[in-house]
Fold each of these.
Amino acid sequence: MKKAIVASVASMLLLNSSLFADMKADTKALVEETVKYCKSVSKDECFKAINSSKFIKGELFIFAFDYEAVGVANGKIPKLIGKKLWNLKNPDGVYVFREQVKTAKKPDGGWFQYKWKKPDGSPIMKLSFIKDVDGTFYVGSGMTVK
């Protein structure tokens, strides 16, 4: 009986880690696809595409900010467009967008984990992949970490 339970738990953990790895790969691929597209068109066309459903895959969507943390495009939360979020702290006191800017400035972008508030105000953990597009703005996409 104990062996069956241990095997079942181990199987669930393996499945969850496999799903997590797949979700990370999907998140990064969406960001890379967006960067490639945005480098091939004007900023206006890039932002229009991000604001449309072009870069929405399931729960994943693209957000874009300039390096002063002003929202320039967002696939699911349009109210962030035009908002300067440089001084926004998460529930842990972390300046989320300052950290995103640091991550975006790395040569190949990178991952950033942080707490975020859901629309109802409850906190959730997010893991986002962030990458520079042209030195004036970056794009990213995040997944909920359970």
Amino acid sequence: MIILLLILYDPTTLVYPPFSHTLGYHKGTLSHLRLATGKAIKFEGVGGISAAKIDFLDDPKTLGDDDELTIFVTDFMRNSIFYNIGLRSLGMYKSPVIGDSSLWMPSDCEITPEGVLWVVDRMRNRVAKFLFDGENLRFLEDFGHFGILQGYFDDPRQISVTNEEIYVTDYGNNRVQIFNHHGEFLKEVKGFDHPTGLAAVSSRDPWLRYPESFFVVIDYQKSRITKLSPDGKILSRLDKNVLNYPEVKFESAAVDYYGLIWVTDSYNNCLHLFDRDLDYIAKYGRMGTGDKEFLYPTGITIWRRYGQVFVVDSKSIQYFWMGVDAWIRGVEPGIFKPEEGVTISYYLTQPARVIVKIYNSKEELVRKFNIGVIKDLGHNYFLWDTLDKEGKPVGEGKYKIELVFEPTYSSKGKFEKRIFTEVQCRQ
């Protein structure tokens, strides 16, 4: 039974990129980093992660490199920042002991396409600005000091950067502060209980399907998620009592192309997926060190253009593409009479292009439906009028109903989710 369960475990809300894209390296472990750097790197202090396509590294003559991202991770235990240099090597910024460019427990970071890296320097109560030149990081300037006044911090935790603004969770002052890209204070949003995780998006983002500016905050001992407008109006809120978990520990949040909200949970060793209203959609992952498993996941980042997802936990960094998952919830009636309709109920985790195929007992195609793109997540229904492709009622016998789901981006053309059910016609 244990072997059977291992074989059946294959969630597809996220999928690994094909071999041709990664050469099989979709998971960076301790041994991989040791080979790349020659140092015994550990993941215990790695938390913040951010990825982007750097403009000056893009070859405008081809689209072939558009999905080659630069990923940055912060290591607060070693006061370091790690990043990849193209597809060939790994770079490291090791903080000096003193000076403006020194870091003391960097807890999070955000890279922009212009190559600007914003780093939360937690113990120095500031945000440090670096410039990436393709090989190295160079310190430019910073903003923030310890205090309770506007523009000051008391234990800043995470950062999120939009086209116009910089959002920072100010843990000790129970607020989120918002700055412009020059580090000048714009406004603060109060009313949080020790906020930690953060994700912000702008309606001007070209890779956001539904133009909406909002930010998401994790607070209340990492058990509550709140979605707010830029002026601080609460749009929706969720706490652990809504979920079927006795305990949660939300760590970080990210927003995908459709505005869906992804949150890491280090207590339950998984990701949680919510819709734009913070209604629960699905859980992804389980405890472990194998494929599609996590051990205390903390950071998550999503490159929305292609739906590329990176998740860091205590043992590895995993690289995913957006997929789609679905399962049959029920069929009514399971045994039908000629010309009697059949309703198939299914659950869908992400927008997908849907095709329904119906076969008879000889595996001959009886009917095909090109449904198009379904964007309504969660419970969905499909009604078959029990007619064949010629518009005639089907005869007695068993019929297999196949539902095919193709992702709308990222893994489109590389992956399909297929689910099946059976019905029977009797006179």
Amino acid sequence: MRILYEGRRVILEPLLTSTAVVAIGEIGDKTQLLAIVLAAKFKRPVPIILGVLCATLLNHTMASVLGFYAADWLTGTPFRVAVGVAFLVMAGWALIPDKMDDDLKTIGRGGIFLTTLLTFFVVEIGDKTQIATTLLAARFHQITLVTAGTTLGMLIADVPAIFMGEAVTKVVPLRVVRIAAAGIFAMIGAWVLLDTFRLV
């Protein structure tokens, strides 16, 4: 029975943590703003959602692979400390409001799915949620579950935005969301550091 419980925990912890971190971190993020712009321009939610899904899977798989192998190559206390500190830095970054770049407000011509796929993939590079994915993969030493969780988190945040537009960002004040995201990043960072020094 204990083995079954431990097995479920191994699966659920990286999956649920990754989903929660990215779902909250994505609200008000640049990629969510992009999803709103695409929805307003094309008014075709299905190909936009599919484009977001595919772009996120590609982008976050790459990010998870990077985190996974970085954890393999850079083992030991210094690396774990670096991961913990990185999460604390992410907590500070999460408090900074995102804005849509002016050059992304004008989306180029092309098929809706392909346009969404390309623009979303490019905008996600170096974004908070991509970096969070890399750190989560390093923390849990998982590729599949972390990628599945972060992709699900992106969809949880972006699908309502595609259907509801900017109204979705007003359901809960963005300041509250940013504080919640910062709190989650800070807790994970503290957890990693405490675990590294065997304080928990």
Amino acid sequence: MKPERLQKYLASAGVGSRRHCEELIEAGRVRVNGAMAKLGQSVTPGKDRVEYRGREVKPEAEKVVVAVNKPAGYLSACFRGHEEGWLVTELVDLPFRLYPVGRLDRDSEGLLLLTNDGDIALELTHPRYGKEKEYEVELDRPAGPELCDRLQKNVQLADGPARAVRASLVGPGRLSVVLAEGRKRQLRRMLEALGCRVVRLRRVRIAGLRLGELPLGKWRRLSAREVTEKLGRGSEERRSQKAEVRTQNPEAKKP
């Protein structure tokens, strides 16, 4: 077999996203053939022995993507760190090593994906792909259209400016917000910077996949067709084409 980047190998073994695996390598928590691994190192599957947390890890042949309706109080992580809470991976009963795709902070709820597929995780989280995430937000006070306008412009945060792709009012103190990047607690920080406090935050869509009627705390495995059509390359293009048709023909039936 051909050599591949160590972080890609680890991601395909269900250790975490490629970016997270890079952090693990830099932290000295990965070993290759008994020696501490280095970032940028390549390994050959079936030839090199790769260990994480003292145990050998191997890529899983069967790729899995699971949708979870994460309750508040659960951590988007595989292992407990300093933050208190239950692990979202504990909600899923499957014989695979799965990890969360992206972030959904402990106090937030809604759609979160778990996978052992490093390629789909990279596509859904890397900024260059611009995959949309849609949120329903409840604020501690009524809001007007000017708040939506400000969210769609640059909001200055400690780690740089941020903006929403779209933002609209859906009720008194209730917003629908779409982001195309996923910095830590980004939407909460954007609203705090504009003088608002979030009472409830719920993610309802990732790319073309909607949370739908999945009950809180439950999960379901996605079909290969769903992964390809709703999460993979082309899902955003299809959404954009449908949105353009509706704009040109307001009477067109919504999908």
